[in-house]
Amino acid sequence: MISLGNGWDEFLQEEMAKPYYVQLREFLKTEYQTRTIYPNMHDIFNSLRLCDFNDVKVVILGQDPYINPNEAHGLSFSVKRGTRIPPSLQNIFKEAVTDVGINMPTHGCLEDWAKQGVLLLNAVLTVRAGQSRSHAGRGWEQFTAAVIQKLNDSPTPIVFLLWGRDAVAKRQWITNSKHLVLTAAHPSPLAQGRFFGSKHFSQANAFLAKHNLALIDWQI
Question: Average pLDDT over the chain, rounded to whole?
């Protein structure tokens, strides 16, 4: 059983005992033994490890991990330092530059956001090298839906940033009116024209300020 040493541990213990997760774990054992899978198995739960349940203030939902070497490390949209910044993340940074005035980052590692209370969660937490969505439908969706449902019950107001059709579809699990849900097109080059100008970074901080919560410093 995985222990992160934070407020997610009780949730993990309960969820990982369920039949769907037992099946998922067996699938992953075989996948990691026989194929190249991203991220490294020790990084799968980095989003929860770096952002304690009790500290979550903003949630950014992604699809599944990056499929190229040295990119995915368990945080949605984030890449390891020293790795080329992917186009979608470049567009996220461009929006933050115009929205809240950060300087354009020189790397794509979003760990600083996670440590401030930004949960960078993918709907599916693992993937085969070079094959997007290759671990879809194996149980991760049920797991991450449970994460969102637990956050929905949080006593702390949370901002959910849902970018793109897949993320917006998860709105069904966010029913608590104390939370703020903001939606936009996906930041990929294919939809960037409808992502730019969404001003989600400033809106998130305005909501946090309204509820006397510490603002996110979006500069990395």
Answer: 97
From 61, 14, 73, select the one nearest 160 (Cα to Cα): 61
Entry field: residues in the chain: 220
Regarding pTM above 0.85, the answer is yes
Read off the pLDDT of residues 123-143 as tens digits, 9 standing for 90 and up: 999 999 999 999 999 999 999
Token pair for 61: 């939902």
Between CA 192 and CA 92 the distance in angstroms is 9
Both tokens assigned to 201 = 């970074």
Mean pLDDT within 34-48: 98
Catalytic residue among 43, 64, 99, 166: 64
The count of other CB atoms within 10 Å of the CB of residue 198 is 18
Cβ pair 124, 31 in contact under 8 A:
no
64 is catalytic: yes
Q: Please give the structure tokens belonging to residue 168.
A: 């917006």
